[in-house]
Amino acid sequence: MFNQGVNSADLIQLEPVSREKMKALVSGNLNGNDPVGFLAPLDSFDFKVIFGIITHKNNQGRSDNLPLFSKISLMRSIQQLDVRKIPSVLVFIEDQSPKKHGHPKHERIIVEIFELDNGKTEVRAVDGQGYDPAVPKSPVRSKYGRAPLGHATD
Predict the structure, then answer these.
(1) Which domain holds residue 11?
(2) Whether residues 75 and 129 fall in one domain
(3) Is beta strand 121-125 parallel, antiparallel or unpaired with respect to 111-115?
């Protein structure tokens, strides 16, 4: 995600065809405004990259709102832009959409371990959970579902 900012800056600085396409796009959306103020930064490379993240999280959390690998990607992107003398900033934009409810991380299946007359064990799902209670041919120390063998879950 953060590479988009670096790639866009590269295209504007290094690819004249891309720069001209950007100027045409900007010019086509000025709605009568003076084009000089909008197009001059593209020619002089006087622009800033703004990384905007739409989130339900508290924007005061800054980069703490990001997962570890996103933080690393952001840091590298900002460093690449700094080397090129391109200012950049990270902003959080409050998500106005209704908050979504997450999915449960793990489905829990309550199991029981039974010792059979022949000395072997059998794992059975406790009735009433919508699973076939018998797990046929379960070798010793095997796992069934998401509950470790030998442990019933609550």
Answers:
(1) 3-94
(2) no
(3) antiparallel
